[in-house]
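Example 9 (inverse folding). The structure is encoded as follows.
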């Protein structure tokens, strides 16, 4: 069983994916029959964005290429 906080996070991510899929659908001229492809693309976009934001908090590499 998942924790309430985890369920809320998953619900938020699903909502972000839905909004992004809609944006993709609109940007492509609202074609019919491509909803699964739009959803997959939206999932990739959102998950990449979340991964980027998670790593943005990491310390930048020092001059030698290693973290300080």
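The amino acid assigned to each position is listed next.
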């Amino acid at each position: 069983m998942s924790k309430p906080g985890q369920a809320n996070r998953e619900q938020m991510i699903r909502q972000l994916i839905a909004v992004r899929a809609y944006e993709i659908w609109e940007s492509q001229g609202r074609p019919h029959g491509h909803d699964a492809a739009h959803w997959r693309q939206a999932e990739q976009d959102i998950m990449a964005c979340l991964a980027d934001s998670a790593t943005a908090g990491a310390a930048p590499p020092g001059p030698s290429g290693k973290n300080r």
